[in-house]
C-alpha cells in the first residue's frame, strides 16, 4: 500500500473523462480503508476540488454543505459531476454529485468567493493547552493493539492526529464531557495550492468530529455493536492556512437524540487564527443505550 499522504494527494488528482454532458465530469480513485467503506472526508475533499476547478480564477471555497447518501465502496473509483449553478460578481455556486455505479453517494453544494476587505473578528483560540509535540501520536497511543482498524489509524492515515484529552479508541474512562480538542497535521509537505489546503482541512475535519458524543456517554470506539455514520457535513473557511502545519481542532456536541448526534468544531492555526468552522450530524447507535444513560 502506498504512503497515506501520497494516496490522499492521488485521490485529489481528478481526471477529465471527456464526457459531453451539462455537468463537468471527473473521476477519482478511492482510498483503501480496512472496513471497505470510503472515508467521508476523502469524498468531501475530492468533491470540493472537483467544484473548485470549475470556479473562476481567484475565487476560493468559503462554504460547503454536503449530505452523505450511501456508503461508498473503497474498492471502486468515484465519478464527480459538477453543475455550475451560478457565477455572480463576487460569488460562484457549484453543486457536486459523487457517484459510484451510477448512484449518488454524496451531494454537496459549495460557494466560492474572491477575497475582499471587510469587518474582522473571530472567536479566540483556547489557552493553556499542551503543544502537539508533547502529546502521543495515534501510533504511540495504539502501539501493540492487534486490530485492523487500530493498525490503520496508527500507521496509514494521511494526518498525524494527537488528542489533548485521553483518546477514546478502546476505553473512555475520563471525564464524561461533550468537549475535546485534537491537534492535526498532514504527514508530509502539501503543494502550495490554496484549494488543496482547504480540501485537506475538509478531509481532516471528518476525523474525530463525532467523538464528543461518545465521550459524553463514556462509550469508546471499541464498544461492541457501536454503529456510527456521518449524515451531513457543513464547513466554512474563514482564512487561508496550511494543512501541513499543526492546527488545533476544538470540538463539542450540543445535543444527541433519536439515534443522532450533532457536533461543532473550530480549526485554529498555531498563531491563534480561526481558519474554519465545522458542523456535522451523525447516526450514533450504542447497544443498550437508554434514556437514563443518555441524560445522566
Automatic annotation (TrEMBL):
Residues 29-113 form the Acyl-CoA thioesterase-like N-terminal HotDog domain. Residues 170-283 form the Acyl-CoA thioesterase 2 C-terminal domain. GO terms for molecular function: fatty acyl-CoA hydrolase activity. InterPro entries: Acyl-CoA_hotdog, Acyl_CoA_thio, HotDog_dom_sf, TesB_ACOT8-like_N, TesB_C. Keywords: Hydrolase, Lipid metabolism. GO terms for biological process: acyl-CoA metabolic process; fatty acid catabolic process. It catalyses: a fatty acyl-CoA + H2O = a fatty acid + CoA + H(+). Homotetramer. This is Acyl-CoA thioesterase 2. It comes from Arenivirga flava.
